[in-house]
Amino acid sequence: MFTAEMARQWIKESAKKIESNKEQLTDLDQVLGDGDHGLNMTRGFKAAVEQLNEETDEPGKVLKAVGTSLLSKIGGASGPLYGTLFMKAGNQLEGTEVQLSDLSSSLRVGVDGMKKRGKADREEKTMIDLLEPVIELMEEKGNELTSAHLIDKAKEALEHVKEYEAKKGRAAYYKEKSKGKQDAGAQSSYYLIESLATVLDKDGEA
Amino acid sequence: MKKIINQPDDVVSQMLDGMVKAHPESYLRLEGTTVLVRKNLSENKVGIVSGGGSGHEPAHAGFVGEGMLDAAVSGEVFTSPTPDQMLEAIKAVDQGAGVLLITKNYTGDVMNFEMAAEMAEDEGISVEQVIVNDDVAVEDSTHTTGRRGVAGTIFVHKIAGAAAKEGKPLKEVKALAEDAIQNVRSMGAALHPAQVPGSGNPGFDIKENEMELGIGIHGEPGMETIGLVSADELAERLVEEVLPELELKQGDETAVIVNGMGATPLMELYILNNRIQDLLKEKGIKSELTLVGNYMTALEMAGASLTVLKLTNERKKYVTNPCQTIAWTIND
Question: How far does the CA of residue B259 sit from the closest CA of chain A (Å)?
Answer without folding.
Answer: 21
